[in-house]
Amino acid sequence: MLKIRSLEKSYGSFKVLKGLNMTVNKGDVYGFLGKNGCGKSTTMNIVSNIIPKGTGTVTFGKEDIKIGYLPESPAMFDYMNGYEYLEYIAACCQYKGDVKARINEVLTLTGMLDGGKRRIKGYSRGMNQRLGIAATIFDSPDLLILDEPTSALDPQGRAEVMNIITELAKTGTTIILCTHILSDVERVANRVGIVRDGVMAVEGDIDEIRQSFEEKSKKLVFTTFKDSKQAVEVAKDITGSNPDFDEKTGEISIPVLPEEDGEAKAKLLLDGLLKAGIVPESFELSKKSLEEIYLETIS
Hints:
299 residues, alpha/beta, Rossmann fold, 10 helices, elongated
């Protein structure tokens, strides 16, 4: 769907992109991550043909591709209502189908069928975002770019927008999601790219990335709020490792070395704890969160 190779872009003497490579496959929900100023917005503006690229290549799976781009804070004509605004969008994109039917379709998908009758001036931030998504998908884009679509929304608003993205993904729409809310990415994305200092530092399927990071730093994690100090000593005696103990959460963690069998060590530890009369509230061979992977990558 989208391939970027050796992309560079400078603003005066400041080079933002320094040879970025990126691959988005058809049907992906791609989490595009990185600190402010790393080049994410510049990349998306180049992909959307809003600004010219410097050097490098940006290619798509086919020549005639439709791109829908929702900026972080979409500007709308607030004297219009939602229906009127989408009629304007239909005219701008020279929509060839049944405009009224398509308006009802996208408003239904975004949960704005009733809100479409109200003036935009009276919309909440969440309603603005949902109408923005409705406008962005109106002409059925091949590639949908969403820049911080849940920024400044309350939990209910975030959940609503994430549900919309999930529904769009089911239709096979290719989506690039630029956000700092990593839990949102974990919820909907199948693939991520993490940009650091103008280059792609990590890219791939989330599960594969998580596995590669876990191979370097696996650990056994269990919690117990009773006999915590005894549990630490038992874990130390059984594993020969020095456990880390978090007094606030009750979490005790033991590293698993690359040459060790994590599952065998987990069974040994759990059996030892139970024999000592210690029943953990939780016990797992830890999985790296996307946040942990992200922080390791950008640091």
